[in-house]
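User: Reviewer 2 asked us to show a designed sequence for the structure in our supplementary figure. I'm pasting the structure tokens here. Could you produce the per-position amino acids so we can include them in the response letter?
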């Protein structure tokens, strides 16, 4: 038989090291991007809903998945969610996102 075509994304061979710093940067990026782009995503036509969903996926979910949860490692999300390291990364992501949002809100008032 011939060789099988390579998978588009091989989770066994792709590993990305996630740290509290990468998680915090992802949180800050999501907060900045969402703050400036969310007014553009409020169109009430059907395209506005599509843009809102795409924006949420690209600006919040994708960075969180790559830089907080990570790629590869062979563990399911349920197994990974109990790890203290994951909980620390999740806390760093949330804290950086909240802090960035607050700082952006304060800077807009002055």
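Assistant: Here is a per-position design you can include in the supplement:
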């Amino acid at each position: 038989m011939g060789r099988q075509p390579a998978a588009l994304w091989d989770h066994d061979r792709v590993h990305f090291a996630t740290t509290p710093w990468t998680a915090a940067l992802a949180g800050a990026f999501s907060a900045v991007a969402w703050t400036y782009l969310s007014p553009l995503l409020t169109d009430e036509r059907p395209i506005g809903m599509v843009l809102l969903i795409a924006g949420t996926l690209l600006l919040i979910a994708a960075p969180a998945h790559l830089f907080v949860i990570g790629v590869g490692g062979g563990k399911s999300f349920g197994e990974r969610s109990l790890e203290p390291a994951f909980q620390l990364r999740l806390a760093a992501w949330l804290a950086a996102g909240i802090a960035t949002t607050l700082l952006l809100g304060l800077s807009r008032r002055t």
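For the response letter, you might also mention the following. The mean pLDDT is 81. The chain has one domain: 20-69+76-109.
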